[in-house]
Write a structure and sequence with these properties.
Carbamate kinase, VC0802-like, Rossmann fold, eight-stranded mixed sheet, 33 strands, binds 1,4-dihydronicotinamide adenine dinucleotide, binds ligand LTNE7NMQ, sodium
Amino acid sequence: MSLVVHKFGGSSLASAERFAAVADILQKEPTAWVVVSAPGDTTDELLALAELREQPECFRTQLSELQQKLHLLARRTLKQPEALLQLVDSWIAEIAGFLAAQQLNDVLAIGERFSSQLLAALLNERGLRSQALDARDFLRLDAAVVDWHLSAQLLEPLKQPGLNVVTGYIARTIQGQSITLGRNGSDYSATILGRLLNAEAIHIWTDVDAIYSADPRKVPSARAYKQVPWQQALTLAALGNPVLHAKTLSPLLDAPADLVVRSSFNPEHPGCKVSQQSAIEVQFLTDIQQAALVSLPANCLLNAHEVAAQLQQPVIAAPGQAQQWLVPAAAVDPLLSLLASQQVYARVSPQLYHLVAWVKPAARRQKQVSTQAQHWLQRQAPAAVFNDEQLAVWLFEQPLSSLELTELHQALLPSVVQLNLVVAGTGNVGSEFLQLLERQQQALAGQIELNLAGLLNSRQALFAESLSLDNWAEQLQRAPLYTEQSLQLALQELAEPKVLIDLTPSRAFAERYPQFIQAGFDLISANKQGVTLPLAQFQQIKQLAAQQQVQWLSNTTVGAGLPVQRLLQELRSSGDTVHAVSGIFSGTLSWLLAKFDGSVPFSALLKQAQQLGFTEPDPRDDLSGKDVQRKLLVLARELDLPLELEQIALEPLLPAALAEGSVEAFWQQAELLDLAFAPVLADAQQQGKVLRYVAELRIEQGQAKAQVRLVSVAPEHPLAAIIPCDNVFVIESDWYQQNPLVLKGPGAGRQVTAGGVHADLALLAKQKIAAAKAAQHSQAQAAAWVK
Ligand SMILES: NC(=O)C1=CN([C@@H]2O[C@H](COP(=O)(O)OP(=O)(O)OC[C@H]3O[C@@H](n4cnc5c(N)ncnc54)[C@H](O)[C@@H]3O)[C@@H](O)[C@H]2O)C=CC1
Ligand SMILES: N[C@@H](CC=O)C(=O)O
């Protein structure tokens, strides 16, 4: 079974409310391991208390305040705090003795012991089996190095089913002395534990759910990454990143576990994964405000990584210069003492620099400093430059402002095209599309930024520079109602390139495509209304799109995610001539007729099909055969046939009595469907046949003949053997005459449709990337000519 270690820091455990929030998170994972820090500032308070040991009066006051604070937290968190209160009193009573015996670490351990006892008790009160574990009962270090074998051996008998809540930050030496793991020690405890348990992932819960390409407080345009590959994470950590610590990552270097940074303030968000598997392109700009350059003697064999681990401070070998190290000002003295203890005498630069480092992306072609960044660097004239495959470091004599760092960030990270997306329709398909968008944003990051800039449904519209995908539904709900004019204004104001993704069923909305195109939008439609408008109107939109050089993609209007239009385009562009397209074009009718055997009423099956996201918003569009008629028209137009909807003969499935009135009224009398379909089924069954709703377009001597109708086919017929919801497209052409080309697969549903819309979007994105590259290329050529 997959095992996850969750680590909660002091700020996640600072109050009874935060403990409750942590318990809510763990409620969903009742078999996890948990590592906890001391609540809030408790460790600092214990340190301050230790400082007061020579001043008995103050010491007693502080001690009593601490005791009261822990009592209050326990009382506010637990219904039955008595056992923990007694434990706290016994620890408080021991403090003076520990201090007298110079056992400060035993005093500091109280914070984490309290957290683990309190959280385990709270979880137990909520009915979740859990135990508190003192990491000092199993975690052993020898000269600051984990003794993996001994620790694993000691841990084994302590494991309990349910939740094990372990103290972070504290451990013992192999001689049994209480020790702490230093700054960010609890994160380190969590990854050690993860490795001891062979965990699949370690979730570090903090107050951010992304790792940024630069410190967003200094560089507001920093990109939020939701995945970071190990190699870049290691380099970033070595440079002193506040979220990722070199020490924390070290136990996982040769373990397959992922490290996930998550926000306990936004627990639904999956967080940012640091993973060996990640193939995402990321890069970072990071800085150290005051750094010294330390030159080591040529014969020094010390390794900067190891020294950094010993000092628990960033110590970086300058890229390409193993004997020159870069360290923050605060680390200079400890470094010099450590070097001196090994008879190594180093030279320290007389001045401190503002160190700016670029952690390069993995792709070889993106490792060069862009021309824009080169110009910027020439202007700023750094005092020193170090560069290798992974990292570039610049040392500036004057501190860089936040604006300057932002400029450099902008110049260094490859100029990605930002494609502004406006999504219209947030129902079945729309919400699934938004669900899948984040993954696509990641997949294309570094090449194009798919920026959600607008969201609307039939009531509300929301526009912002960049909309968050985390809580789009609540944001949209709070957005104001819109008018046609206000919407058009917002659409017009949005920067290009921009794409409007129509996931509505609305004809009125589709009729506004010319306005959207005029406003500079590319269009992606899952809505079939636009592509089936009267021929003159349809052609006008096509022409306008061509004039304005924008795309109109609509692959999901037929076969949902099945690439049937693309298939026809490919055949035609390769010189083939299509003579007929036929088959099953409705996912809903395919599903209904394959499922309908009389055991479940037809109307009940229709309800299920709706719940599965197959039907049109008004299911009568499916039952009437209109949806299939529209799809056949789309394919006819794909073949450049000047057809109108009415020219496609239609035999509806829907009884005429149900055709009028509201959708609600239709559902109220849906049992009429059962009466209508029972005899049709009985008839087919009597003949040993099955029912299928089929479409057929035949082109003979340039004339198109098209029809959609219900047929009954023998079990051996190619259209009989389908999986419910399958669409089947049978294409006959010059090259596929005797043995037609068949495309088959699920033809309706939220996921396949939203996936198909993403396929259209990815195609458009590729075109935008290619256009941006071409523009860059011609600019570069023009610049070369000028020189
Ligand atoms: N469900 C499927 O398998 C497939 C669906 N489609 C098409 O996808 C579209 C969406 O389908 P569902 O998500 O199932 O519909 P839905 O009814 O669940 O959602 C429709 C959304 O469009 C919004 N809307 C309606 N009229 C609007 C207008 N005038 N302006 C702005 N927003 C408007 C609604 O508020 C709602 O958010 C339809 O056109 C459907 O034909 C296409 C291929 C497959
Ligand atoms: N309602 C449609 C959805 C896809 O276009 C169908 O069932 O095929």
